[in-house]
Amino acid sequence: MKQTALHQKHLQKKAKMTDFQGWQVPLQFSEIQDEYHAVRTSVGLFDVGYLGRIEVSGPGATELLQKVLTRNMSKIAEGTAHYSLICNEAGGILDDILIFHLPAGGTSGRRYLLTTNAANTEKTAAWLRKHAADTVQVVDSTQTFAQFALQGPKSLSVLEKLAGPHFKKIKRGTIRRTLTVQDATLMVSRTGYSGEHGYEFFVPADRAGAVWESILTAGSDKGILPCGLACRDILRIESAYPLYGNDIDETRTPFDTGLTEFVDFQKEFIGREALLKAKSARQTLTGFVLLDKGVPKSGGSIFSESRDIGVVTSGCQSPHCRTGIGLGYVLTRYAQAGQEIEIEVRDKEITAKIVDLPFYRKK
Q1: Model pTM greater than 0.85?
Q2: Contacts of 220 (CB under 8 A, 6+ apart)
Q3: For 68-124, how does the pLDDT look when each residue is reduced to its tens digit (9 = 90+)?
Q4: In the chain, where are the structural domains located?
Q5: What is the CATH number of domain 282-363?
Q6: What superfamily in CATH does domain 52-140 come from?
């Protein structure tokens, strides 16, 4: 089982640990509801070191990513971060990633950093190497750097306190490499997986513990809490962010998942021809809310008038909606908001309603 750079620190803090996609990670540090409300109303700090970090550089790096990613690389400017998909030849999603276009830093050619899902790092690195020219370097830097996510409406205040009064604000979808904390030079980006204002820190692994403590200290007067995977899962479901391995896998296409906005069909990429032939989805990833008590679980069946029409892929008890909510695939003709369905929860069928996504929008 893999461990993040902060593993021993989490054990010392008596965090409840869990196994996630081959990693041992904190499930929770305190009460899940407290961690959730910290992110929604103040600020929370996550150790997301289990995400893969793959560096792609050298002459031909841009051409490689243009071939394997669904986004058009000509539109990804230096210093920006973008969400993209990697498809196989059949149009199935191999991974969904964030791509950071880094400053060249004296190297020949352009430099990029891809953050992958925890379970997909080796697979994605192998796929990149398979299609790379000899001039392209594909380096798995997952163990070289730690990665933290600072999320919540007060995250900017914490960052400003950490960086000093002269730190310029970071626009959403951009990155910066000018922050020094505890003698470590950090790359800071502004994206997020919680639906709130937030930042990511890429930290040299040997300085991870010191930087983590510095962030917590900087946020102590804002009510900052370290947060675990359970809280993160609720936040991302409320924001309707799909999770690879639950809501996305190689059997699903961008049409199925509703992610075609991240696919540029005007350029060539692996899987494009198969997707153009498919053009539509038989099943569609949809959101629903329960109309009675219960918590939907991954794998539960979805019914309409006793007919099996799909499957639950993610579910939780939503503090925002004050009921059980979930994501799941249903036959496309049933995927309209307002459609009443039934969800299998612990061998019972609970009435639910399909709703527009996301469940939560930042005010």
Answers
A1: yes
A2: none
A3: 999 999 999 999 999 999 999 999 999 999 999 998 765 556 899 999 999 999 999
A4: 2-51+144-237, 52-140, 282-363
A5: 2.40.30.110
A6: Aminomethyltransferase beta-barrel domains (3.30.70.1400)
